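Table S4 entry, C4-type zinc ribbon domain-containing protein.
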Amino acid sequence: MKAAPAAQKRLLDLAELDSVIDRLAHRRRTLPELAEIDDLAARVARLATQVIAAETEAGDLAREQTKAEADVDSVRTRAERDQKRLDSGQVSSPKDLASLQSEIASLHRRQSDLEEVVLEIMERRETADERVTKLAAERDELAAARAAAEDRRDALFAEIDKESAEVKGRRGDIVADIPADLLALYDKLREQFGVGAAMLQGSRCLGCRTSLSIADINRIKAAAHDEVLRCEECRRILVRTPESGL
């Protein structure tokens, strides 16, 4: 392949810009905020699940408390009704009177037992409600931290994308100076090796940092100025400049 030396030198400018573009793309992919957001999102999801479980437990206890209180009211009502019968004097039979007194005492004991159950449920429900409040607060705090990290990520994305767009614009100006066949070769090599062209500095390829053999140097010296050369080691386009010392 043949190409004017000036066009070949433009490959070095292109490679430099492509290196900047690659660094910007790598930076965009590896922003610390991305890992932070993923971690916070996972923690928020776990807490959301825990909140639902805690809310379910608290709801179950609320229904259990309502039922227990209803049982207390039912027993209290029966005891009050029997007490009114006892106080009214309507029961005159000693046997019936003793039976009624025994039932009232039994109902009072039952009421006392049920009230203890209600108190125990209320304590458990209070603990469950406190857990819901604590977990929800932690979830909301982490969600706010995630939102802040997302804002930082978006600001950095905008900054990186702006810089990348500027570099790509400059790249377009350079591409216009490079023949299509040479550019196609450069792009192919860049896709394969990450860098498509490198400078020959003295006897060293700056692409693979390898010192060329005397035979390779002599071959390069004998090549026409417009011949497109390749490094025998890394196969990148080898660009000759005044720093090559040839």
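The domain at 5-25+179-244 is CATH 1.10.287.1490 (Helix Hairpins).
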